[in-house]
Amino acid sequence: MDLDQFEAxxxxxxxxxxxxxxxxxxxxxxxxxSHTAGKAIGRMVxxxxxxxxxxxxxxxxxxxLVQLSFSLPLGEVEIGALVRQRNAFRYGFEFVExxxxxxxxxxxxxxxxxxxxxxxxSSLE
Length: 125
Hints:
By secondary structure, this protein is an alpha+beta fold. The protein has 2 helices and 6 strands, in the order H-E-E-E-E-E-E-H. The protein has one domain (22-119): predicted glycosyltransferase like domains (Thrombin, subunit H), CATH 2.40.10.
């Protein structure tokens, strides 16, 4: 299944997964720059074209705009994001910027999708 087929199947059955984009597991360091909490270092646990989930030890307020900085295999990413969710130490960040950083994330996710399809990995969430 390619990315277009995935999107078509998702649109055909919107109850199957309410997310806009598939998530991919990723364990890398991420720096979060918050106006209220300062700089925090966390671990990214997954990524999608629209955002990331990360584990943080520092509390970051929901609804705050933050700057994320992390390294992907295709390059460095610095991107603005909104703190959308929190469950204990796990935070969800939604990207709010377009541009080259967002394009790098999208290319990375597409590559991960193809890699997982080729390897038969069923860990798409």
